[in-house]
Each structure stands twice: as structure tokens, then as C-alpha cells.
């Protein structure tokens, strides 16, 4: 099937079943390979085709099983905080999460989150073929920071998966699609016996209790898609929501602790402390299976951990979404600005898929980061951009022309809106050549009015700088 045939079919209102969506997907892969081989632009209908595939994926998912558990939104209570980190509410993942005092409500700093927190389990979010390391071998170590050896098929498959997550989240939480962007996503490999915490690109065999929004203030919604199955490819490694036990449950907790000592092997002091802590918490485990996904609000209502693997290798794809809009100024700083036509979107796709082959590694990293920030432009047709909303019947355009699209709303609103870059900051930001991009007088109303973003050529990471003072920061808002 070539792209022209598929797009003619779709434009005539054809609804795709799973098989057609897959065939359409592979015809996009072929179109990319052809464009690369012939050194030609990508056919202009490809972005719209991708949108139809994403849309079909979301519709198909609506008919599959799902278990939603509503939870009360939580955030750290500032009074009585035990440390400076706790007072800020942004403690890194740490065992002290267990003792953190919480209060009701969402933090959602800089974002436009809804006030509904939940946990959603989808047992069949992705097909076995989509999770297959035989079909997509590079999924085992996928990161947007290093696409050097990653095929266009794998990158597209990854985008397809993450866009399915984005549309599902927008639908579940009643958010305008335009307000939700992936800030970070990669595949994570856990190997039994590595006796270290996973993360930071390294392999580990567990993840300590943490809150995603505490790791990065701009993570507002999280998802983990599983690529393999517990008790087939690995043992142990439960994903566990770990909740404080309500006061009334204290007696129960002490009973649990006593029980846990029965028939237990001798323990080290460390193990005993961990056991006592766990007995005093409510643990809700999820057993990973191929293609399953857990979607949840990233706040303190959803503290979680990954229990130690006891054998084998476990693969998961976490993704973290933000509702912080990208400041308008950031687009003008990107190597290729905000796309304005379907041709430009097709060009950007080709850059995303092939940049790492035609550019230096530094340049291609910067380009890929841009594409994370432009995700909405890349995956949603331009005519749907004004406050696109995902419904059970499909993506609809907002009726009211006045409906605000935070990505394109007034300069004041976007300049004030924080955004955080996904990469960890490795070194102090370089001092850029100041470029006057904003009105210095407006800084009284908005402390960040003079800030702009740029890509650090050495690391490829985006950083932010004050165009008047030259002050720099790897994170937004600047610290
Ligand atoms: O692998 C998992 O199940 C969860 C990973 C996780 O919590 C994270 O990456 O933040
Ligand atoms: Fe997490």
C-alpha cells in the first residue's frame, strides 16, 4: 500500500481496523526509507496519515479493557517539613518519601492540570508485535538522546506508542490535546543481580519509592508501557503503588508486621527496617505483562516503586507528560522554527527520523529535543490545533475560535509559562551571546519576560538565559 492510496482511503472517511492501521504504519515507514534513499522530501500527506493512524489507535483502545481507580490528589504539606528539600516539595527519589507529610490538592506547577487524579490500568495497550524486540530491536535501549543506530521504523513505532499514551491521557483527564506534551520518554532495562537502582541510562534491578513530579516539577502525567511479562521473561519486579496507611489501619499494620516475621529468613538490619516500613504502608502491586500500560497522575497521590527483580531482564517504557506550554520564544530559538505548513511538518518528520545520520551527534540531539517540544505540531493536523479535544468519537476541533490554545495564546501568557527540559543538566550552562528578544519593561509583571531558550552546542541540551543579564539555567523556571 502506498501513502497516496492510504490517504485517499482515509480522506473518504474509511475507519481503520487494527490490521489496516498497521499496514498504513508500515507504508509510512516505507515512504521514509524511500525519501532517504532518493534524497527527496517526505510526501506531504504523511503527517496527516500518521494522524489518522494515531486516531485509529486511540479509537481501538476505547473498546479494550481498562480499570480506573480515582484517587485524591496530593502534594507535600509545607508546615512541619523535615528538611529544606521537603519544604520545597521537590525531594529527589528518597526513602524519606514514606515520612513526607501530605495535604490534599494538586501542585502541577506551571501547568494546566485537571483536579482529577487517578490510576488507569490497560491490560492490552499495545500489541505483542509492537512490543517485540525482534521486530523493533532498538526498543530495548531506546532514548531520544541517542538515535545514532536507531532505524526510522523503531523511532516511528516509539512515537506511535507515545502518541497513543498522549491521546489516552488527554481523553482520561479531559485535557485539550494541545496542552499535553511528552517531556521525557525512553525504554528502561532492568537486569536481575545488578544490585543497583535503575535510571540515568544505566541498568538496575529496582527503583526506590518515588513520586514522578518530585523528580521533575513539570512532570504532570505519567505512563509505563511494559514490553515483557513477569514470570515469563523475569521474576520479581512488580510495579507497586505505595500509599500511606490511613490512621485507622495502624493496628492492621502492626499485625502485618508480626505476620511478616513468621517463616522469614534471617534479615540484615537494613532489610528489617525496609520490612517494617512496608508493613506500615498500603501496597498495590501491578504485575507487568507484554503490552500492558499504567497511566497515572504524576503527583504525590501516586508514589510508586519497582520491586527488585529476582531473575531475568525486564523492559519498560516510561513516559512523562507536562501541561506546561512551550514559551513562544523557544520556537524562534529552535534551529527550524514552528512549522506553519504541512510541507514543513513533513520536513520536520524527516529531520526527526534521519537527523542522526546526516548531522553531527550534537546537532541531531538538539533537533530531536526540538521535536519533543513540537510534538503537538507533528502529530495533530494544523487545522485541529485550536484546543483539539479527544473524545470517544474521535478528535474534534473546538467550536469557539476564541478557545485558547496555550501553545499559541498571547505572548504574555506564554512568556510566563514555565517549561522544563527533559535532560539532566551535566554542567553549568554556557553564557550565550545576549539577544534582545523581549521588552525589558514587561519584566516587572513577569519575572521571566526577558528569558529565552537556546540549544547548547556542546551537549545538545536546551538551556534558558536572561537576555538582559546573561544569567543562564538548564531548567525552567530558572533556579
Ligand atoms: O519500570 C517501571 O515499572 C516504573 C519506572 C518508573 O517509575 C519511572 O521510570 O519513573
Ligand atoms: Fe516513576
Automatic annotation (TrEMBL):
CDD domains: WW (cd00201)
Domain of life assignment: Eukaryota
InterPro entries the record matches: OGFOD3, Oxoglu/Fe-dep_dioxygenase_dom, Pro_4_hyd_alph_FE2OG_OXY, WW_dom, WW_dom_sf
Annotated spans, Disordered: 426-445
GO molecular function, one term: oxidoreductase activity
Domain WW: 451-479
Ranges in coiled-coil conformation: none
PANTHER family tied to this protein: 2-OXOGLUTARATE AND IRON-DEPENDENT OXYGENASE DOMAIN-CONTAINING PROTEIN 3, PROLYL HYDROXYLASE-RELATED
PROSITE patterns: FE2OG_OXY, WW_DOMAIN_1, WW_DOMAIN_2
Protein known as: WW domain-containing protein
Pfam family, one: WW
The UniProt record lists the keyword Iron: yes
Similarity field: Belongs to the iron/ascorbate-dependent oxidoreductase family.
GO cellular component: membrane
UniProtKB keywords: Iron, Metal-binding, Oxidoreductase
Amino acid at each position: 500500500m502506498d501513502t497516496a492510496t492510504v490517504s485517499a482511503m482515509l480522506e473518504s472517511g474509511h475507519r481503520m481496523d487494527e490490521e489496516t492501521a498497521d499496514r498504513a504504519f508500515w507504508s509510512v515507514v516505507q515512504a521514509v526509507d524511500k525519501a532517504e534513499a532518493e534524497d527527496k522530501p517526505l510526501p506531504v500527506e504523511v503527517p496527516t496519515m500518521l494522524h489518522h493512524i494515531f486516531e485509529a489507535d486511540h479509537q481501538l483502545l476505547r473498546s479494550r479493557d481498562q480499570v480506573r481507580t480515582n484517587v485524591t490528589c496530593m502534594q507535600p504539606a509545607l508546615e512541619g517539613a523535615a528538611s529544606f528539600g521537603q519544604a520545597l516539595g521537590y525531594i529527589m527519589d528518597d526513602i524519606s518519601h514514606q515520612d513526607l507529610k501530605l495535604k490534599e490538592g494538586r501542585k502541577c506547577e506551571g501547568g494546566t492540570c485537571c483536579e482529577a487524579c487517578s490510576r488507569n490500568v490497560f491490560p492490552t495497550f499495545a500489541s505483542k508485535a509492537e512490543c517485540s524486540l525482534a521486530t523493533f530491536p532498538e526498543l530495548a535501549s531506546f532514548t531520544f538522546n541517542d538515535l545514532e543506530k536507531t532505524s526510522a521504523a523503531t523511532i516511528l513505532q516509539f512515537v506511535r506508542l507515545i502518541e497513543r499514551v498522549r491521546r489516552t491521557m488527554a481523553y482520561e483527564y479531559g485535557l485539550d490535546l494541545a496542552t499535553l506534551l511528552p517531556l521525557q520518554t525512553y525504554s528502561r532495562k532492568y537486569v536481575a543481580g545488578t544490585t543497583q537502582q535503575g535510571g540515568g541510562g544505566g541498568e538496575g534491578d529496582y527503583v526506590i519509592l518515588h513520586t514522578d513530579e518530585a523528580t521533575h516539577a513539570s512532570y504532570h502525567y505519567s505512563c509505563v508501557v511494559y514490553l515483557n511479562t513477569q514470570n515469563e521473561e523475569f521474576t520479581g519486579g512488580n510495579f507497586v503503588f505505595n500509599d500511606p496507611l490511613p490512621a485507622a489501619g495502624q493496628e492492621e499494620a502492626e499485625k502485618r508486621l508480626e505476620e511478616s516475621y513468621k517463616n522469614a529468613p534471617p534479615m540484615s538490619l537494613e532489610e528489617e527496617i525496609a520490612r517494617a516500613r512496608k508493613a506500615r504502608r498500603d501496597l498495590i502491586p501491578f504485575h507487568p505483562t507484554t503490552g500492558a500500560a499504567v497511566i497515572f497522575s504524576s503527583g504525590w497521590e501516586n508514589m510508586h516503586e519497582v520491586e527488585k527483580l529476582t531473575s531475568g531482564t525486564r523492559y519498560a517504557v516510561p513516559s512523562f507528560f507536562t501541561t506546561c506550554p512551550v514559551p513562544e520564544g523557544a520556537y524562534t530559538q529552535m534551529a527550524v522554527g514552528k512549522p506553519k505548513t504541512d510541507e514543513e511538518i513533513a520536513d520536520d518528520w524527516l529531520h526527526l527520523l534521519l537527523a542522526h545520520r546526516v548531522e553531527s551527534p550534537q546537532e541531531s540531539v538538539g533537533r530531536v529535543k526540538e521535536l519533543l517540544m513540537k510534538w503537538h505540531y507533528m502529530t495533530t493536523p494544523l487545522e485541529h490545533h485550536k484546543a483539539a479535544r479527544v473524545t470517544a468519537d474521535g478528535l474534534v476541533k473546538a467550536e469557539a475560535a476564541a478557545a485558547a490554545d496555550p501553545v499559541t495564546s498571547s505572548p504574555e501568557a506564554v512568556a510566563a509559562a514555565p517549561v522544563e527540559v527533559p535532560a539532566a543538566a551535566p554542567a553549568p550552562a554556557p553564557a550565550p551571546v545576549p539577544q534582545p528578544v523581549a521588552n525589558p519593561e514587561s519584566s516587572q509583571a513577569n519575572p521571566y519576560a526577558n528569558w529565552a531558550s537556546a540549544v547548547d552546542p556542546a551537549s545538545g541540551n536546551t538551556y534558558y538565559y536572561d537576555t538582559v543579564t546573561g544569567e543562564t539555567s538548564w531548567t525552567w523556571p530558572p533556579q
